[in-house]
Amino acid sequence: MSKILVIGATSLVGQRLRDIVPQAAFTTRKPKQPNDLFLDLMHPQAFEGEGFAHVIVTSPLWLISEAVLEALWAQGMKRIVAFSSTSRFSKTYSPQPEERRVVELLSEAEARIEAFCATHDVDWTILRPTLIYDEGRDQNVSRIAATIDRLGVFPVCGRASGLRQPVHARDLAQAALGVLSTDATANRAYDLSGGETLSYREMVARIFASKGRPARILSLPEWAWRLGFGVLGVLRPGSALKGNVHMALRMNTDLVFDHTAARRDFGYDPGIFKPEFTAGADPRGS
Predict the structure, then answer these.
(1) For the residues of 85-116, what is the DSSP string, one character each?
(2) Closest CA to 169 of 136, 124, 206
(3) Which intervals hold domain NAD-dependent epimerase/dehydratase (predicted)?
(4) Residue 189 falls within a domain, yes or no?
(5) Taking a C-beta distance cutoff of 8 angstroms, is the pair 160, 38 a contact?
(6) For position 118, which CATH number holds?
(7) Are strands 132-133 and 123-129 parallel, antiparallel or unpaired?
(8) Which of 86, 178, 199, 256 lies 20 to 30 Å (CA to CA) from residue 262?
């Protein structure tokens, strides 16, 4: 395989790629390791990488501008694998303007990469994960674990019956490498869900179990969430608290995607949801 360049050394997937392909080069604004390269995505013209035919993008996709693509192509890019998100579809009609804006940015970024590659003889693959987790690093599962440690209980909205498919960053890193080694994945997009589908409530229960605790899940009705965040919004006007109530209400919405195509084309085989938190440890990591 040709030399690999990973854009986004500090992202969840980027950190896992560093574990499994330490010989790859990683871009960052603060190089700390021998194979780190400086890249400011806002000013990519200064990038001095060379000979990286294979590029994996794990940073926020909307940061990959036309100028970034031009800089990578000038240094030899012939294949790009870029991580987007299934949020592009699941949050299209979100009541939160910020989330709809992210959907727009992701859609534009995907289209920009496809169009650029079509005119520059570069093969592309877009990967869209579902809920990504990595113990102590992510803002989803690890945040739930932190709340459990702090309160000893986790509040949910109603039955919290919405289906989820959490996928570990390690599985996504392996997926990116699988894509690079499989010609059939060129110029295609794939949804990458986790190895099993479970309700939000069951997901929370698994996190309790991973910490050696009995599942103490407090079900609050929708009106209580609306009232509570409404009061907080009055006490703290201008904050992002209003958005949090929509996150709570989504606990009863299914967010499910099919990864059959990924399994067929490059052997994608994610694990079941079994987070590993050390009992009593800070789930936010160091």
Answers:
(1) -THHHHTTT-S-HHHHHHHHHHHHHHHHHHHH
(2) 136
(3) 64-190
(4) no
(5) no
(6) 3.40.50.720
(7) unpaired
(8) 199
